[in-house]
Amino acid sequence: MRVPLVEIFSSIQGEGKYVGCRQIFVRFADCNLRCRYCDTDFTRRSERRIEDVISEIERLMSEAPVHSISLTGGEPLLHCEVIRAIAERLVGAKIFLETNGTLTSALERVIDVVDIVSMDVKLPHSIGRDLTAAHRRFLEIARRKELYVKLVADGDMSEEEFMAAVSMIAGVSREILLVIQPVTPMNGVHSIKPLELLRFQSMALKELSDVRVIPQTHRLINML
Ligand code: SF4
Question: Which of the listed residues 7, 27, 30, 35 should we mutate to test ligand 1's pocket, taking the one with most ligand atoms within 8 A of CB?
């Protein structure tokens, strides 16, 4: 089995609920979306044998104990058979899935081997279409395991689309953690003002029990 990858490395998680935790990152090439703020360099794609990928993960695990193995991208759910192979070969290691929350059938095929789901909610202005229905179906499956949601907030985010996303999450469960992640400006994407972040957090807290604002911390210290 060949695995299309951008990179494998050991570092700290820079985003979301598990900021600061040591992880091994398996960054898959390919994605089914094209977000305006994407920072993945897909030009670094290479193909590796699954045996070599697992050996590299084992080597990194032997160098430093890790919280979990982050399967990230790109979109890892484009490679279900690889996810299953990694989980089944590395028994005991926690599988942490970072996903754009759109490939529902693929999630159904691997949810039994995943421990934690970190799901992005994509707003219409960032992606050019409304993914609400797909996100809702995805959340219903993902909530079988530990789950939290990330939402990248930029200066063009409207109150209407933000609250539509919040209501969609709350409709699945108001106990799902929402992390609002202020965008790192790039490709013409504008940052969001601090007072706006507070306003959006206040609005979301009326529908969800836990809403946190957490930036991309690895960028603060120039970490991978
Ligand atoms: S879903 Fe993630 S990897 Fe895919 S284009 Fe959007 S930001 Fe990039």
Answer: 35
Q: For residue range 72-121, what is the model confidence (pLDDT) as tens digits?
A: 999 999 999 999 999 999 999 999 999 999 999 999 999 999 999 999 99
For domain 2-220, which CATH number applies: 1.10.10.60, 1.10.357.10, 3.20.20.70, 3.30.450.20? 3.20.20.70
Alpha helices, H only, 64-131 = 80-89, 104-110, 124-127
* pLDDT tens digits for range 21-65: 999 999 999 999 999 888 888 888 999 999 999 999 999 999 999
* Residue 106 CB–ligand 1 contact under 6 Å: no
- 183: Cα within 13 Å, side-chain hemisphere: 25
